[in-house]
Structures are given as C-alpha cells and as structure tokens.
Amino acid sequence: YFAVKRYEIKERFSGRVGERFAVAHVIGGEGVLYKGKEQIVLKEGDCVYLPQQMGDYYLTGTLELLMSEVP
Questions:
Q1: Facing residues of 50 across strands?
Q2: I want to staple 9 with a disulfide (CB 3.0 to 4.6 A). Which of 22, 42, 63, 65 is the partner?
Q3: 55: β partners
C-alpha cells in the first residue's frame, strides 16, 4: 500500500528520496524539479517517478502535488 501526501508549493520545496521510491503527481500549477544539474519542467497532469536512493532534490514554482510513497 502507499501513503499519499498533498503539498502546496508556493515558491520552493526541498525533499529527499531515501530507501524507498516516490511518485509525484502534479494536480495543479507548474514548476521545475531540480536534481543536481538536471531539471524537469512539470505541469498539471504530469507524473514523475523519483527512484530509491535519488537523494536530495528541490522544486520551484507554484505547484499542487500528490506524493505517493511506501511507508
């Protein structure tokens, strides 16, 4: 089963993926996911897989996300 959390990001959000993967579902707004030098533009309707051991990342923009994680 999964735990789902809802996030409202107004400017910047920092996160970390450790032992277990996560899936980010963008349910509103738009922004950018940054991991090191890589970046992914996100908009409503997008779904992004965040692999286990991904480490630190951050998001910018105005986004509403549902983050699904294995507890």
A1: 22
A2: 63
A3: 17
CA torsion sign for 51, 7, 39, 11 is negative
How far apart (Å, rounded) are the C-alpha atoms in residues 23 and 65? 10
Q: Which residues contact residue 28 at a Cβ distance below 8 angstroms, ignoring those fewer than 6 apart?
A: 44, 63, 64
Question: 32's torsion region: left (phi>0), alpha (psi -120 to 50) or beta?
Answer: beta
pLDDT digits (tens, 9 = 90+) for 4-63: 999 999 999 999 988 899 999 999 999 999 998 999 999 999 999 999 888 999 999 999
| Residues sharing a CB contact under 8 Å with residue 47, sequence separation 6 or more, in sequence order | 23, 24, 25, 26
| CA 66 – CA 48 distance, rounded (Å) | 11
Whether 18 contacts 52, CB under 8 Å: yes
